[in-house]
Specification:
141 residues; 6 strands
Length: 141
């Protein structure tokens, strides 16, 4: 089973196949300039913080969709060594801990936390970004 899952929240499914054997680095590059990304990392799938973060995001699916967010779930125990190294280096993260990051459409890390993050925090940060301001203006929001 691939431990790296791409969730398009609001869809009743988690997308496995599109990125099944693609390294995390390549997945992230393919989303640059198209989507904002929330990366959730846990050492093991049973983590309470992992479940809480997924629940927080699932409760605000319209806001997630409106902000072009894609959620990538990384379960450390089953990640490839290449993907574990990417998480550790790219996000400067201790792989023994829960981690969540917001990555902007430009590929830059905008938020890094070791506890679950509220949608209010994600959304306020995103909505203050110049690119999001332009999107809202364009969409009449």
């Amino acid at each position: 089973m691939n431990a790296l899952l791409i969730s398009f929240l609001l869809s009743p499914f988690i997308l496995f196949s599109a990125f099944a054997q693609v390294p995390l680095y390549e997945k992230m590059q393919s989303l640059t300039w198209k989507n904002r990304v929330i990366v959730i990392y846990v050492p093991e799938a049973g983590s309470k913080d992992f479940q809480k973060q997924k629940q927080i995001l699932a409760e605000k699916t319209k806001g997630v969709r409106d902000r072009d967010l894609v959620v990538i779930e990384c379960i450390g125990k089953t990640l490839s060594s290449e993907d574990r190294n990417y998480v550790a280096r790219h996000f400067n993260h201790d792989l023994a801990e829960f981690g969540v990051w917001l990555v902007g459409k430009d590929g830059g890390t905008k938020l890094s936390e070791t506890r679950p993050v509220t949608t209010e925090k994600f959304f306020s940060l995103i909505d203050a970004m110049p690119m999001r301001q332009s999107e809202m203006k364009r969409d009449g929001k």
